[in-house]
Every structure is written in C-alpha cells, then in structure tokens.
C-alpha cells in the first residue's frame, strides 16, 4: 500500500510575512481603492482634481472624419484622449502636492467629448497623508496567497523523503 505524503509542518506565518512598507518620500502614490495595504491614513486632506480640455486642429479633425467612413482606429482621437488624461492626472498630482498629501485614494476619471475633436477629462480623488504600519502582516486573500507561496517554496526546497 502506497505511503501517504507527509503534511508540511505548521509554521508561524506572522513572523514570515511581517514587514514594514517603505516610507513615501517626495512622491505621491495613487489608488482607485479606499486605502493602501500596509499603510494607515493619518490625515484626510480633502478632494483634489485636475481638468484638461484639449482639441485637435481642423486638419486632423477632417482626416479623422474621413477615417470614420473607411473604418479603423481613430489614432488622432486616441492620442487626444491619452494626452487629456495625462494632463488631468498631472494637475491632480500638483494639487495634492500643494496640499501636503503623499497619497490620493479613490482616484477616478470622468471622460466626455466636449464636442467633435475635443476631449474633456476630469481626474479626481481624496488627498491623504499616509504612513507605513510597523511590522504589518497581510490578512485575508493577500496573506493567504503569500503563505501559500511560502509553503510551496519550502516544500520544493525541502521535499519529504
């Protein structure tokens, strides 16, 4: 009768997974979530936003109108939307920096066509000041995934005889 494989030894995962996240220095980090794993919000600063309305020139607008007839990606409009989004995001970050934030949570983008050939983008979120949680241990799904990875690495490095 074949022998059953031995179960891996139970380990104290809290000691293996704990650690302090890095400090946020001279940066602003962004998330669409309501917080950052391993960081605590010390201060809610307030709403921040950036707005960009951009338009292409009439020549490009005419060329894109012709492209609508033949089909395919409207590359000039795609570039317009990307430029608008980036400029709105840059303005949001600048506003957060002026207010002393080191993070922005709940970041969202609102997009709309102001008219044919123009794009309006509003980026908005909540500016906060965060700091790392000392000896943070991930919980829930993240902690379970990290523990499973640790167990698999340990199993491969020390297979049972």
Indicate the overall shape.
flat
CA-based gyration radius: 24 Å
Number of domains: 1
Structural class category: alpha+beta
Q: In what order do the strands lie side by side in the largest sheet?
A: 1-3-4-2
In round numbers, the mean pLDDT is 78
Any guess at the CATH architecture? 2-Layer Sandwich
CATH class: Alpha Beta
Helix content: 25-40%
How many angstroms does the end-to-end distance come to? 17 Å
Give the number of helices. Answer: 4
Q: Report the β-strand fraction as a percent range.
A: 25-35%
pLDDT < 50 runs, ≥5 residues: none
The largest β sheet comes out as:
4 strands, mixed
Topology, element by element:
Elements: H1 13-17, E1 29-30, E2 39-55, H2 58-70, H3 75-98, E3 103-115, E4 118-132, H4 140-157
Parallel strand pairs: 1-3
Antiparallel strand pairs: 2-4, 3-4
Verbal overview:
With 161 residues, this protein is α+β, with helices and mostly antiparallel strands. It has a single domain (21-147), classed as Hypothetical protein apc22750. Chain B (Translation Initiation Factor IF3). Helices cover 37% and strands 29% of the residues. It contains four helices and four strands; from the N terminus they run αββααββα. A four-stranded mixed sheet has the order 1-3-4-2. The longest helix is centred in the middle third of the chain and has 24 residues, at 75-98.
């Amino acid at each position: 009768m074949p022998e059953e494989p031995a179960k891996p030894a139970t380990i104290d995962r809290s000691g293996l997974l704990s650690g302090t996240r890095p400090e946020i220095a001279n940066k602003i980090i962004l998330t669409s979530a309501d917080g950052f794993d391993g960081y605590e919000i010390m201060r809610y600063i307030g709403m921040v936003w950036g707005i960009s309305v951009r338009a292409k020139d009439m020549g490009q607008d005419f060329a894109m109108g012709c492209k609508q007839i033949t089909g395919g990606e409207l590359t000039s409009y795609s570039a317009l939307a990307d430029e608008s989004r980036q400029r709105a995001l840059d303005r949001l970050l600048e506003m957060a920096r002026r207010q002393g934030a080191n993070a922005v949570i709940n970041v969202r983008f609102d997009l709309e066509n102001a008219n044919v050939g123009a794009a309006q983008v509003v980026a908005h979120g909540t500016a906060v000041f965060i700091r790392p949680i000392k000896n943070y241990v991930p919980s829930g799904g993240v902690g379970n995934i990290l523990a499973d990875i640790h167990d698999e690495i340990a199993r491969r490095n020390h297979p049972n005889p």
